[in-house]
Amino acid sequence: MKLSKPKLLVARAMFLDELACLNDYFELELNQEDHIFSPEELEQRLQGKLGMICTSSAKINQALLMKLPELKIISTIAVGYDNFDLQACTQYRVMATNAPDVLNETTADFAWALMMATARRVSEAEHFLRAGEWKKWGVDFFVGADIHGACLGILGMGRIGQAIARRAAGFGMKVIYHNRSRLSADQELAAHHARYVDKETLLRESDHLILALPYSSHSHHSITAAELALMKSSATLINIARGGIVNDLDLIQALQAKRIAGAGLDVFENEPRFHPDFLALKNVVLTPHIASASERTRRAMVRRAIANVIAVARGETPPDLLNRDVLEM
Ligand code: DGY
Questions:
Q1: Which ligand 1 atom is nearest residue 79's CA?
Q2: Residue 40: pLDDT over 90
Q3: Topology adopted by domain 104-286
Q4: Ligand 1 lined by 80 (C-beta under 6 Å)
Q5: Per the confidence metrics, is the pTM higher than 0.85?
């Protein structure tokens, strides 16, 4: 008798050619129409499933897990996993995995794109041109801040932060950083001689400050009015990390008052329903959470999530297991 395969939910639309290899291990339920499941729908879709591949849009908590006794693995294609309650996962013997490393370079590229666009006012200038307002050139026409030779500050010096720092070599920048723990001397050297400083010094000295730290209850509102008040009035703030790390209302007020020169934001509190007052500001560059969005990288993220669920189907430990304590349960 042929044994039936375990069931797997792929909760968002993904590259079908990448997913094809899953058919050897699982009976798949796809969502190629890319409908965003409500918590109730997600619960219903997960009934009887051994696993799920998802993105940051799937919120996994105790209330959900207690109703899913067959679930063994939740595998996000993202590196960030603030949508998973890891303690609840362990409690309900569910392995949680993410997709680290594969997006470091692409995300670092994008941090630079946002920093450069913000410092040199690219979006603002383009909107001006598109609106037909370009009548004459002027000496102070869209003057911005230099990147080369400036001081790059990085809050959160994990693998993405270090990839951002390495790029500073080509622009002759000085790099300073703050992180929960200091990097080793070798890592600092490789990160363009990054210098560890306390958070206050980082805020005071950075010409361009990039946020690259993971979101958690500890990093919630790491940047509020108090931190913005310490920054140079000529500085820019770039967030490619997560909404919630910045208090968006405080940032809006600082930008309105020109407390800092500008912000480049790929992530927002309550995205995709971000604060509408951002739209009225000229000194922001706004993008819809696309820092890792190159086709090659998005495919690599999906492949990493696939490798994690296949490991579980084979009875192996998934390579990117986040809650290792689940193995002792
Ligand atoms: C990540 O991988 O965490 C990106 O932000 C996409 O969600």
A1: 2
A2: yes
A3: Rossmann fold (3.40.50)
A4: yes
A5: yes
